[in-house]
From TrEMBL:
Keywords: ATP-binding, Coiled coil, Kinase, Nucleotide-binding, Phosphoprotein, Transferase, Two-component regulatory system. Residues 300-345 form a coiled coil. SUPFAM superfamilies: ATPase domain of HSP90 chaperone/DNA topoisomerase II/histidine kinase, CheY-like, Homodimeric domain of signal transducing histidine kinase. This is histidine kinase. PROSITE patterns: HIS_KIN (PS50109), RESPONSE_REGULATORY (PS50110). Pfam families: HATPase_c (PF02518), HisKA (PF00512), Response_reg (PF00072). Residues 361-594 form the Histidine kinase domain. InterPro entries: CheY-like_superfamily (IPR011006), HATPase_C_sf (IPR036890), HATPase_dom (IPR003594), His_kinase_dom (IPR005467), HisK_dim/P_dom (IPR003661), HisK_dim/P_sf (IPR036097), Sig_transdc_His_kin-like_C (IPR004358), Sig_transdc_resp-reg_receiver (IPR001789). Residues 17-133 form the Response regulatory domain. Its EC number is 2.7.13.3. The lineage of its organism: Bacteria, Pseudomonadati, Pseudomonadota, Alphaproteobacteria, Acetobacterales. It catalyses: ATP + protein L-histidine = ADP + protein N-phospho-L-histidine. The keyword Phosphoprotein applies. It comes from Gluconobacter cerevisiae.
Amino acid sequence: MPFPEFEMPMVTSNMPRVVLVEPDCDHARQIARILVNEGFALTCATSGEEGLGTIEDTMPDLVVACTELPGMSGGQLARRLRLDALTRNIPILMLTEDASPGVEREGLESGADAYISKSAHPDLMVLRMRALLREGPELLQVDEASRLRRARIVIVNSPREEEDEDDTVEEAPETTLGELLWRDGHTVTSIERSDDLIEGGWLRGADSPDCLVLELGSGDEDLKFCRLLDARRQAVLEAGGIPFRTLGIVEASRFRRQSSGEFFEAGIDDLVPSDIALEALAMRIRTLAQRRMAQDEFRQQEIERQQNALTLEAARAKAEMAEALAQANMELARTNERLLQAQSKLVQTAKMASLGELVAGIAHEINNPLAFTIAHADTVARTLKRLQGVNATDEATSLTKKGLSRLESMKLGLQRIQNLVLSLRRFSRLDESSFQKVDVPAALETALALLAHKLGPGIVVRKDLQAPAELVCQPAFLNQVVMNIISNAADALADLSVDSDVVRGTIVIASRLENGRYEMSVSDDGPGLPHDLRTRIFDPFFTTKPVGTGTGLGLAIAYSVMEAHDGTIEVMDANLPGGHGIGACFRLSLPIRMTEEGPVATGRAA
């Protein structure tokens, strides 16, 4: 907007840059003359849209905008500036012809920093602008972390005589300023003004106030107090701190006179009349407090930025060394991983070797006497039966029957010892280590027939075999792994049916081909397996069964057989539909390759 009536001075770098957005040309010329004479570099616009473009082009130190603009209003302009990261830090002074609290509150909520009437004295407007510029350009929008901190506000009351205090108590309003600010979540302290307040350490440090609200009168003592406070603020600023903000409440009659400008010259950031609406006053206090909190947040971010810059510089100085060290660490990590894998295999091999030696000792020390004892037990049984026909006395017959009964019990015990030796031999892979074609359904039927005494009439076994019937693998995959898991499932169902004469439950056996793997699962609806035991059940001799009913080798055998096939075995909750309990599901997975004869397991012996 041109101003032909007077010549604009040459702009220098130290002149404050101001953008004036005012649609009234006459009023804009009046303000322009005042600002140019006061040493401001001025750029004018007549609408919000034009002002927005001018602000983005010039990036001024201060924006003075009228609330009533054609098109975009002053509040919308302020809101747009606050949304832009490049312009959100620019102070905004709003000019209005309507000085009502509602209009002021709307302007402050939209992002304006201060409010002044167009009818105010020009010197007062200049002082208000200089107060905004005095706060510096380092203003940031308060982020969420800053909003979490409660603003610290101190209300400094003028000294009163005892009679004045009594009158104040009687005429106290229903809601005071302190109560209103406290309800907004701020920390509010009310104190009486004295010279000792200036010297205290409470005006600096981490717990210093964000805003001082001063009750000012018409005497020189009030101006003196404001100057002392401003000197204290300058000391805080020189020490690297963020000074507190000050808002003065002056008598309404003096506020409307030019003499109120003396308080701005004394360092006050904002000045309001004593008859201002309480909500509007609280809004101005919140604006000052948030501005100070924003600067404090900026300082913290600047400190962090400098620390990060130092750290980055140190990191750059060691870049080559760090790169070489990272490469060495990667090699070391890979080597360490290989060593851990080798160690795990060595430990497992050592376990197998120890168990092999144990099996060899058992086979040598127990198998021969065991076979001798079992063979002669049959001879003793035949001899006792012959004696029954020779001595026909009642006493002899009774003793012979008793001997035969005891002999049968002995044979059962000997058979258990023989089964234990067979389990140990199978665990050490002394038998059935070659890969051969196995008829999976037939092998499952054989396993179920051998476990018929455990399954009984109350356990329902369902099969869902979707994988091919024939599989080239170790027969132990079915003879030991699947059979042991089915046997454990039957035992789990028996534990769940301890109060019933008949063991009831469901076992589901399923198989399928998926992603180049032959998978088989055995699920039950028993009590399930606790998570803390799932990593231990494959250890040799670990068992959850009562003493005398389990050897702790079944799942250890299963694990070693799966390892020979380069396969995996996983345990999870079954959750069968309509099941009695959570149940356990053992999922077996073998890597295979497809041939003309069918799937072939790709284990070590293949």
